[in-house]
Give the backbone structure.
Amino acid sequence: MPLLRAGAVTKLFGRLVAVDRVDLVIDAGEIVGLIGPNGAGKTTLVNLITGIEPPTSGTLVFDGTTLAGLRPAAIARLGIARTFQIAQPFRNMTVRQNVAVPALFRANPAAGVGQALGEAGAILDTVGLGPKREFSARALTTPDLRRLELAKALALRPRLLLLDEVMAGLTPAEVDAEIAMLRRVNAQGITLLVIEHVLRAVMGLSHRVVVLHHGRKIADGPPARVVEDPGVIAAYLGNRRPAGRSG
Ligand SMILES: Nc1ncnc2c1ncn2[C@@H]1O[C@H](COP(=O)(O)OP(=O)(O)OP(=O)(O)O)[C@@H](O)[C@H]1O
Ligand SMILES: [Mg+2]
């Protein structure tokens, strides 16, 4: 049984079809990359899986449980965590306190604040924020806020983790460190769906890559095959002017 199965999932915003009959299967242990030009429907798909918005039609099943009608908190307790493209930490709390909060509210919560803070410290070491654990969240840079988003999601002890552009704004060296870190997270048994515009990162990290374009799934396969897919190349060239061409 797949960990996640989406069947013909569709989301309309008025007349705009943001997600168009997407079928998607994610098996336990996989790292699946989700790519596509701006506005392709990637974040919307994550919002549907996590219950932020209801699908207009279609089915979503996680580990045998249908997600229809479940609120985001209930879906998180089933074992699905996500990061947000725009981080929204508790700005008046420390970095470590921010991570302790989900540890206290997940399905099998930490026994108390002390234990939650201890766990939070270990998770912050994993994501590279250990030295900044006592900083106020408001003092973090944008890349560090993305690491904090990841740490908060890990504190839920998810089985499936959906990452929405956690590498945006990182230097190439930081991207390499992030890839290594996500591989360690996956090796701990956490299945990953990774939305990323840094194609080098998503192609190097993912076992399989899914491409959305205008809400439709236009490719699904090993990275080496997907990068050579004519439909994928056309989708990208149609949205980004190729280097060295004018007009
Ligand atoms: N709440 C909403 N109301 C109306 N339209 C929306 C809403 N959310 C998203 N859209 C539209 O749905 C389409 C898909 O948006 P979405 O944010 O899912 O794309 P994306 O692939 O995540 O893009 P990006 O790479 O820029 O983050 C876009 O046309 C967007 O403007
Ligand atoms: Mg998005």
In short: Residues 172-187 form the longest helix (16 residues).
